[in-house]
Amino acid sequence: MTARLVIMGPQGAGKGTQAARLAEHLAVPAISTGDIFRANIKGGTPLGELAQSYTARGELVPDSVTNDMVRDRLAQADAAEGFILDGYPRNAAQVAELDAILAGHEVALDAVVELTADRAELLERLRLRAQVEGREDDTEESIARRLDIYDEQTAPLTAAYAERGLLVRIDGIGEIDEVADRIAVALDDALAHRAV
Ligand code: AMP
What residue owns the CA closest to ligand 1's atom 5? Predict the structure, then answer.
């Protein structure tokens, strides 16, 4: 079964973990723009050098860079039958770009999963992650900046997807297995009823 999905939610809502679980459940690749940037930064590539000054501050990498990167990634063979995009789109211009990329492949999104969590819970989770993973951008300022950008630019995008009948909202609070089950049940239902 093909499945072209976006998973959205503020940092700390468990997006990456759930995207990986879902990718296994649906047998499609999880594509995280944050992971691609981190791999490039680690590898010292020109893309990594460019991205680093933005990611370290919690700012968005410019759309021109991010959009090209996603376009290239979605053109790879393993994404032909589906994908789960994690961390993209993050603003209205990226929503339009994703539509254009998919239209170019004569396909469209099947669903957009939004993981919800309140800010106090998110801050607690991010503080824990900072201790465990030691991510360069998990400083207090950068975390606050990313949550603000999410509230201002990314959260409003869900309304557009809801209008298209694509939005599946899931409570992201709970054990990993519990949340994964909620997503699987809601998505299986949404995918079974999608327009063909
Ligand atoms: P994430 O792992 O999704 O939190 O992403 C880490 C960082 O990578 C973000 O704070 C941004 O600096 C950058 N990034 C990831 N995805 C995007 C995107 N769609 N647009 C712009 N910047 C992004």
Answer: 34
User: 10: domain CATH number?
Assistant: 3.40.50.300
For residue 146, indicate whether it is catalytic.
yes
Residue 164, helix vs strand vs coil: coil
User: What letters, b where the CB count within 10 A reaches 16 and e where it falls short, cover 120-134?
Assistant: eebbebbeebbeeee
Residues 49-84 have pLDDT tens digits of: 999 999 999 999 999 999 999 999 999 999 999 999
Alpha helix (H) residue ranges in 44-118? 46-55, 63-74, 92-104
Report the alpha-carbon angle 63-64-70, nearest 5.
80
Domain count, the chain: 1
135 catalytically annotated:
yes
Output the ligand 1 site: residues, CB below 6 A.
Answer: 11, 33-34, 37, 54-55, 58-61, 66, 87-88, 90, 94, 137, 146
Is the omega angle on the peptide bond into residue 10 within 30 degrees of 0, that is, cis?
Answer: no
pTM (two decimals): 0.92
Domain span at 129: 3-195
